[in-house]
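Methods: holo model generation. Sequences were used as deposited, without trimming of termini or removal of tags, and paired with ligand SMILES retrieved from the corresponding compound records. Each pair was processed once, and we did not select among multiple samples. The sequence and nicotinamide-adenine-dinucleotide SMILES for this entry were:
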Amino acid sequence: MKILIAGGAGYLGSVLVPKLLERGYEVDVVDLFWFGNHLPEQTGIIHKDIFDISVEDLESYQQVIFLAGLSNDPMAEYSPSQNFIFNAAAPAYLAYVAKKASVKRYIYASSCSVYGYTDNELFDETRPVSSSYPYGISKLQGEQAVMNLLDDKFSVISLRKGTVCGYSPRMRLDLIVNTMFKNGLHNRDITINNPSIWRPIVSIEDATNAYVRAIEASERITGIFNIASGNYTVGEVGDLVKMAIEEQLGAHVHLTINHKSDFRNYKVSIEKAENVLSFHPNHDVKAIVKNLIENMDKFQDWDNPQYYNIETLKLLFANHGLHSLAGVGR
Ligand SMILES: NC(=O)c1ccc[n+]([C@@H]2O[C@H](COP(=O)([O-])OP(=O)(O)OC[C@H]3O[C@@H](n4cnc5c(N)ncnc54)[C@H](O)[C@@H]3O)[C@@H](O)[C@H]2O)c1
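and the model returned the structure below.
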């Protein structure tokens, strides 16, 4: 089977692509390579903006996966207009051309951030979504647009992931567990802005396994699925990261607890993904920290701007003008 992954050179794609190659799939990646190229040599590389993809370009693929866009709140808030183009219009355009090219399945990288601020209840996929910030609104718009194209011949799956954490060859240190790990090890201090806020967290191993399950699911399976390894309060995540660093690396870590308000607070049920996709996560926060410790020699240039999406975005704007990101990285 031949698969095209848009945004496949990013944090998630750089772990997913080797897994798919290992399973015998032919994988091409279309990407602007804002964060470089850390993909295996066997990957087919298409250095393009999604908006430059035509129907003819997609005719040889059975499945298309969307992993592109501006992938966190700070990026979305830095340029809300570019955010809505990259996160709402791009997945819709790609799904539209994929359907015209008779691609059989389209998988969309959604986010639990669509749930906004909830009242400490476990949310399944039928619960109302209520984000009022650019990233959450645009991820929902992208999801609604691609789900609207679903029919008997075009099988669409949307994976609403919690915050993904763990090691990737294209590393990010702006994701909750990864940030706490860096701060605990480098600064010997983990700052927790609000210990009572809930977040679903998903290890990069579990997250990429969810994509494998979606790719390999029967074409009759479609719909929206919450994906998480577990729900944690931010305070508990801080305790688990501190404990792991102290036990495994012998360094004392101080915790600084603040009580700042947050606009996101949610915990999700993954029962539907377990029952329909056979997605069974098995990497909790302890396992994520173990995975970071095992790979930490590879990202100790802690201040590399590529590890912080907002820093790279600011550099892209500075180097290419403030109006458009299209084609940046070509
Ligand atoms: N990382 C998380 O915690 C998380 C959680 C939930 C959802 N998601 C979603 O999953 C997806 C992947 O996340 P990630 O952390 O791997 O992101 P990332 O920022 O590491 O990678 C995004 C990639 O997309 C490419 N890209 C962006 N716009 C493009 C365009 N128009 N044309 C071609 N390439 C383009 C970039 O060059 C980059 O390589 C994103 O859509 C994100 O919103 C991520």
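Residues 6-7, 9-13, 30-35, 49-50, 67-69, 71, 86, 90, 109, 111, 161, 163-164, 170, 175, 309, 329 surround nicotinamide-adenine-dinucleotide (CB under 6 Å).
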